[in-house]
Amino acid sequence: MKRFALADCNNFFVSCERIFNPKLMGKPIVVLSSNDACVIARSDEAKKLGIKMGEPAYMCAAMFKKHNVIVYSSNFTLYGDISKRVMQRLSHYSTDIEIYSIDEAFLFLPEYKKTPEYFTDYAKYIRNKIKESSI
Fold first, then answer.
1. Other residues' Cβ atoms within 10 Å of the Cβ of residue 42
2. Residue 58: beta bridge partners?
3. Residue 123: which CATH number?
4. pLDDT digit string, tens, across residues 83-97
5. 20-to-26, 78, 112 alpha-carbon distances in Å
6. Is there a catalytic annotation at residue 17?
């Protein structure tokens, strides 16, 4: 039986912004769509404040101010570049990879007769290696 894993980058656009400004860790952050119309990415901290995906930015302005939410305009060139780097890294850990979206990919793994724990540990290993890399 062929095994596969789904790699899904958490809060991808926010994570991309944090690569270049680690001081943003732990702070509520949102990334807005083209023309700054709607929220398209939220940090976990912003989610806890109740900011919804797709919510119009103008409806959140008071909340952004009240909770010191850091607001970014989308930078799709940056996000695309980082996505390519992540996908290239993922390809080092799989016999076959199917890129599904800017922040998701399926990794097909060899047909080892291993325990589920082996694959869980392997997934954690991959995650840690990508986090450690200078994407």
1. 22
2. none
3. 3.30.70.270
4. 999 999 999 988 799
5. 15, 11, 38
6. no
- Cα 35 from chain centroid (whole Å): 22
Among residues 17, 98, 104, 117, which one is catalytic?
Answer: 104
Q: Enter the tokens of residue 28.
A: 């509520």
Together in a domain, 88 and 66: no
Number of domains forming the structure of the chain: 2
Q: Of 59, 76, 93, at which residue does a domain stop? A: 76
| Pair 15, 9: CB distance under 8 Å | yes
Task: Read off the pLDDT of residues 12-33 as tens digits, 9 standing for 90 and up.
Answer: 999 999 998 999 999 999 999 9
Same domain, 72 and 88: no
The whole-model pTM stands at 0.86
DSSP code of residue 50:
T
96 three-class SS: strand
Distances (CA, A) of 13 to 10, 60, 82, 99, 118: 9, 19, 10, 17, 30
